[in-house]
Amino acid sequence: MRLLVTGGLGFIGSHVVEQALDVGHEVRVLDVRDIASAAAAPDCADIIAAMSHVDFHLGDVRDPAAMSDALAGIDAVIHLAAKVGLGNGVSDAVEYVSTNEVGTAMLAQSAAAGTVEKIVQASSMVVYGPGLGYCPTHGLTAPAPRRAQDLAVQMFEAYCAECAVELAGALIDEQAPMAPANVYAASKVSQEMLIDIWAKVTAGTAVNLRFHNVYGRRLPLDTPYAGVAALFVSMLKNGHAPQVFEDGHQRRDFVHVRDVARACIAALEVAHPHRVSAYNVGSGTPRTVLDMAQSLAMAVGGKSPEVTGQYRVGDVRHITASSQLAADELDWRAVEDFDSGMAEMASASSDS
């Protein structure tokens, strides 16, 4: 298959490219960075080896000429190029909309004029907003909005908006409503809709993969948009104890980047029962933020995590995924061991 990977030099993209090459696809990459600068990043020197086997195009997904050129003769696209993170209010709204929404619109427009039959796109768990919990009276329900006065007295747990009972954990499936709570999340919802419309107009196939908390080799450290795993590794690397907010019992679904890359390839290769599909991509095993901090500290012999009680009102207390639909329709399951994956990431970052 002639495959275009946008953002193919990035954290997830580089792993997708490697796996796509391993299974025999003809790969083209479109990235705004050049290969040399990407390879100079920590733990990324081996990107040069992979990129020697691809048709590399330097360009921006928002540039119509660059996109049109990159799509020439392409059968399918794995679209990973995006501005990532959670954003800061609306101060960077234009940048998110420009990169994520305009870039995806350019892909849809250019792909409609070409030979593309399938687009697999990186979406995110953030489309679900605060997620869902289980109330014994009201069933699955969105939690009540977090209140600063509750958090200030260490009342961190989510509770039912109807009866104020503490919610039990629930695995989010793809039928949960989209409820974007920030600009980044809104841009991911828009990306999904744009690719879905492309599929309906062109009779192509759109697959949106809702990645949960991705970790692994090449996770960028020390950036404003780094995930909590990257922040903890950075603290440990500099001899500091990981600072864990709230009580550390926030539940997440941490999924290894190699599993995510395999999900992208599975979505690419499997015949889909629907023209438009969305799948959660998570490990299926909820873990706490403190679990992750402890695993990383143990892996590198670093300082034990410190639970600070600090909080951010806009943070989500718990959000964990059901990836059963991906197992059923893509024949995909996460296989990477959590502690081994954390140790690998911490070791690679510490050695760089």
How would you describe the overall organization of this protein?
- 37% of the residues lie in helices and 18% in strands.
- It has twelve helices and 17 strands.
- It has a seven-stranded parallel β-sheet, with helices on both faces. It has a two-stranded antiparallel ribbon with strand order 6-7.
- A hairpin with a 3-residue loop joins β6 (133-135) and β7.
- The longest helix has 20 residues, at 93-112.
- It starts with a strand and ends with a helix.
Number of helical regions: 12
Q: Could you say which overall geometry the principal axes of the C-alpha atoms support?
A: globular
Order of helices and strands: EHEHHEHEHEEEHEHEEHEEEHEEHEEHH
How large is the radius of gyration? 20 Å
Q: Give the total of beta strands.
A: 17
- Low-confidence runs: none
Classify the beta-strand content into a percent band: 15-25%
Question: How are the strands of the biggest sheet laid out side by side?
Answer: 3-2-1-4-5-9-14
Counting helices, strands and paired strands, the structural category is: alpha/beta
